[in-house]
# Entry
Amino acid sequence: MTEAITEYFRGLRVCVTGGAGFLGRVVCRRLADVVAGEVIVPRSNEYDLTDASAVARLFDDARPDVVLHLAAEVGGIGANQKHPGRFFYANMAMGLHLIEEVRRRKLKKFVQIGTVCAYPKHCVTPFAEGDLWHGYPEETNAPYGVAKRSLGVMLDAYHREYGLNGLFLIPANLYGPGDNFHPESSHVIAAMIRNFCLAASRGDAEVTCWGSGAVSREFLYVEDAAEAILTATALMNDPAPLNIGTGHETTIAELAAIIAELCGYRGTIAWDSSRPDGQPRRRLDTSQAELRLGWRAGVSLRDGLRRTVAWWRDIGSKQTVLHD
# Structure
């Protein structure tokens, strides 16, 4: 895949929204490896992507050929419950203005990163791309999921009416070194690593995790996600949704046991069933990614978790700023 990525991006000006974030930093490093013409990373203090005039100014300044839209306002279940309005507005507005500006300027390609939260709450597993409209998303993250789902519809409509070359990629839950470990907005893996490592260092007898532990999730290592995004950008010219994942699901209780072991925690794991579980099951059908891109994830969950725990111990836990 490296050859296809290198050939496609050579000499192009690539704007990566969210390029200073968790996934974005990995994507930008990979672009540097393949010698893209220039990689532009807009910062929120200079360009508010929820403002149409700021997006137009960004495009005036950056003059991109390709836009990879990785920026999002997102968090775990607690953050979604606290900010449903903001998460809908910010994610909808950013994508809306960016796609319209790409249309106006007839850019080479636009890539929208979707979310597994867009799938129906009671979707049959594995989730196939055609299942997106077979029900309403799980309530705690529905505003975020619906906003992203709507942007996929916008890309399809703009492709049919204006010929806009856009992609809509749906990754599984991401994790890895450099993730957001903030106690108020982190997702499940980062939260567990932080909590279990701290508990192990203090000798705590018990750690309490949210929910029942019975629900399942699919987790994708961030470097695998970056490779899939760049491969899809190089090879695809179709706005039809495409799942990016491992095709394997893990219960939250199984996940907790693995992370506790890797963190050296040997106490009791308790479950607070008063806290929401979220969607009952998540597992993506990744057959289309393999068929259309020749891509499959290369990092196992245990190996990826081991790398992430090592990063947290060596670097993450010593940082005063846990999330950009």
